[in-house]
Input
Amino acid sequence: MRIFFLLVDEPFYTPACVEPLLDRFGADVVGAAFPAGFFDWKRLKTTIALYGAFSTVGRMARMAFASVRGGIVHRQFATRGIRVQDVADVNAPAFLDELRALGVDLIVSINTPQKVKAPLLALPANGCLNVHFGMLPRYRGLLPIFHALMNGEPTFGVTVHLMDEKLDNGDIVAQRAVTIGASDTLDTLYPKAFTVASELLAEAMDACARGALVRRPNVEAEKTYYSYPSPERIKAYRRRVKNARPELVEGRARV
Output
C-alpha cells in the first residue's frame, strides 16, 4: 500500500503523532505535502486570546526557529528519504497528477487546512483518512477540544473517518473517548489527543492494508457544529486556567 500524508508542520504536537506512524509504515509512505493556509489572522487572534500575548509570542518564536531549521515534521519525513513539498493548492491538477504518478493508495490527513474536493478524494483506491479531535458526529467544526472542555464534558473524542466533500463528514473507522480531568487545560489535553490520534490512525492504516476496514455511519442528523469561540467563552477558559493551573497564566506561561 502506497501512503501519502497531507499535514501541517508545527513543533508542538504533530511530531509526536507522526513519529510512530513513520516507524511503523515508513516503508510504505511515498510522500508528504504541507498545504498552505493553516496560519491565518483569525487563528492567530484566537490563539492570543486563549493563551495570552506572552505565551503566543513564545509559541511563534518556537515555530519560527523550527521553520528556519527546515521544519520538524518536514525533517521527520525527509530523513527517511521520503519526498516532502509545500503545496499552495491540494486540488490543483498538477498536484493530482503527481499523486497519480506515485500510485497513491491511501491519503492520511492531519489538520489539512484546505477543503479537499472530489477529484482528490476519488484518487486513492483506499480513500482519504482524516483525524478529527471531536466525538463525531458531535463536535464537528473548529476547536472541538476547547468546546468539549468548556461544555463541561467528562471526555472529548478523537475520531478517524473517511473524508468526503462535507466538513468532518464521511464514515467513522476508529474512535476513542479521552478523559477530561478537573485540572486539564488545552495544554494538557492536546498532547493526549495527538497520542491517541497516532494510535487510531495506525489501527485504521493497518486495517486498510489488510482490506479489513470497518466503517460506521457518521450520522449527519446527530451532528453538532462549533466555530471560533466567543470572547465571553474565551474569558471563561482563561479563568479556568488561572484557577486550575496558575503556572500557565500569562507572564509565567510555558511554551
Observations:
- The domain at 3-248 is CATH 3.40.50.170 (Rossmann fold).
